[in-house]
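During data preparation, a discrete fold description was generated, and the record follows.
___
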Amino acid sequence: MQTPQEAEKSRAFAYLQRTFPRARLLRIGIGILVLIAVAYFILYLGDIGVYNGAYAQGVFPRLLAGLPVTLELVGTVIPVGFCLGLFFGWARTSRSAFLRGVGATYVEFFRGMPPLALIFFSFLIATLALQQLTRDPFVIRNTSLWIGVLALGFHSGAYQAEIIRAGLLSVPTGQLEAADAIGMSRFQSTFRVVLPQAFRVSLPAIGNEFSSVIKDTSLLNLIGFYDLIQVAILNMYAGFAQYIYAPLILWIWIAVLYFIITFGVNRTVRAIENTFRVPGLEAAEL
């Protein structure tokens, strides 16, 4: 027979087990250990003269000048890529041979081109074309820069199209037949039956593609965007005169900032994934 105090402890322990499962506690513990290890490593670099805390603190605000541009690029490329991936992924599963051909051509072309080559080609072609339409250098430069951003979005969209196509094909055909049997049109069955299930299945892979495209936006500094990478490069050359290990500190900060952006997007995708989770069909949470 449990005493009231023991019963209260049992209820509290059961509540903690539901709220913080072992896997989550393990992740938290590993994260804390990693943070402690990183802190000690930074202190060690400072002791041997590699890491200069004063320089790191002084250069960080200057690096933040490129953060809004990086966030703007990420906020443009991800939606463009997702919309294109959704359309062409659907086109590749369409009954129309024409749409399937267009989708296959788009996917094969943009997946076969390096993103850097796409960015440069689109930037140069847009510059040459706009020179025939206007002599305003501001319009030419800014429009060409954003054409380069769209090129990166098209590249990401090709990968997302294949992810979404796989998600669409994962829905059993019997569900479409059932939708037809109850009088749903093709449009209704697509948006009410197929897409919600395909979206749930595709979310983990789409989140992985989002992580990749966030890092790919760093390529856009090569055509003139003043993003985190461009700011770091400019400060790196100036930092050599002050501190020989300036590049190390700069790129540590850049790595941390990109990690924060990627982690935030991944957690957002994970939250959406949990919202659409179907009890009994989810994988084990690690």
